[in-house]
Amino acid sequence: MAKLTFYGHACFAVELTDGTRLLFDPFISPNPKASAIDVDAIEADYVLITHGHEDHVADAEAILKRTGATLISNFEIVTWFGGKGLEKAHPLNHGGGFDFPFGRVKYVNAVHSSVLPDGSYGGNPGGFVIETEDTSFYVSGDTALHTDQRLLGELHDLDFGVLCIGDNFTMGPADAAIAAEWAGVKTVVGVHYDTFPPIEIDAADATAAFQATGVELLLPDIGETITVAG
């Protein structure tokens, strides 16, 4: 069980029962739909970035410098932020994991693209599997449906997933529902939708697509905190 706060687009925070705060893909200040969110009030112990696109890293530098959080991402993204003076970081690469004080983080495959805002190479995009004493969950990052997601259900006992559902640039609801089924999760928090016209969704249709596979889709409002359990 964990508390999840949605900050719009693909940005969200998870607060673990030990108080550790994990912030994912911070893109808030450039997002008009998240204008009510005070970025400077967001606290984080770790900032996890799935890939280098602007809509996943825009507020990362400012939040990392203000909070002193540890960055977790792939080698290329960690190196890029290191060039900005942010050396409190841990690099991962695909299939690799590391045991942090709060639990284990594994960097897993995503099928997408990645380039950093200044055009620098962002490495290969990925997602995360987070396993703690109290909860375990899969963060897809931006991705297409891919059969490696079957392995997640075979190798991990996941309580919930945070999956992209906006279509056009990533999985849409129908494919994301299949990904959830393969990963073995019964609860999904949908992200990466409605921010821009190409990724606007019909929430009722999306919910129905997940229900057809026996999965509950949660679509919290921007700024809303929910409790998520498997």
Automatic annotation (TrEMBL):
Against Gene3D superfamilies, the record matches this protein to: Ribonuclease Z/Hydroxyacylglutathione hydrolase-like (3.60.15.10)
Q: Name one Pfam family in it.
A: Lactamase_B_3
Alphabetically, the GO molecular function entries are: hydrolase activity
Instruction: Enumerate the InterPro entries for this protein.
Output: Metallo-B-lactamas, RibonucZ/Hydroxyglut_hydro, UPF0173, UPF0173_UPF0282_UlaG_hydrolase
Sorted keywords for this record are: Hydrolase
Q: Which residues form the Metallo-beta-lactamase domain?
A: 8-192
Mind telling me what this protein is named? UPF0173 metal-dependent hydrolase JIN81_02005
Identify the species of origin: Haloferula rosea
